[in-house]
Design a protein that fits this description.
two-stranded antiparallel sheet, 8 helices, globular, binds zinc ion
Amino acid sequence: MHRLHHAHTDEVEDPHSPHNSDGFWAMMLDTRNSYRNIFIGKTIVDDKYRVNLPEWKAFDKIAHNWITRLVWVGIYTALYIHFATAWWQYIFLPFTIALGTVQGAVVNWWAHKFGYENYKLSNTSKNILPVDVLFWGEAYHNNHHKHPARPDNAVKWFEFDAAYFVMRGMYKLRIIEMKKILPLRSAISIVKKPILKTM
Ligand SMILES: [Zn+2]
Ligand SMILES: [Zn+2]
């Protein structure tokens, strides 16, 4: 789905575009449906978008079902019960439960509507926050559309991709493999080994 978004940004084939849906919630629902249709095989995606796509069937089986979702809801609720010091803090519980979905939808919506551009591209991608304190580097969506395979989304001196630091740590611990490790915003050096592949 994400590769389709890159190949057809803002066009009718874009699986999540604010320019294809009537509002934020409609886009969220459209995203959910296009994701689900690909997952269950109702939408057949062209082979060229599937090259090197990691297939983790065992992981999907565990992660993609209602029991697991309910376990997560239970874990979040237990954490609130343990740590909350006032009743109103529970207002944030539904938001915490849906955070992944909300974060994805906010980026997909906002980053194709409002923000600044480092690169003039043939699509509407924007960087939504100059200092990304909310989205761990995903706010730099215009940078990401320009360099989709670059693990560090930050380009300008004031931009900061926190997720890239985590990736570097995971790379050092040999949990993930990176084809390139960028010495922060500059030259590229090639590295060899580890275990999982990232784009
Ligand atoms: Zn995009
Ligand atoms: Zn991407």
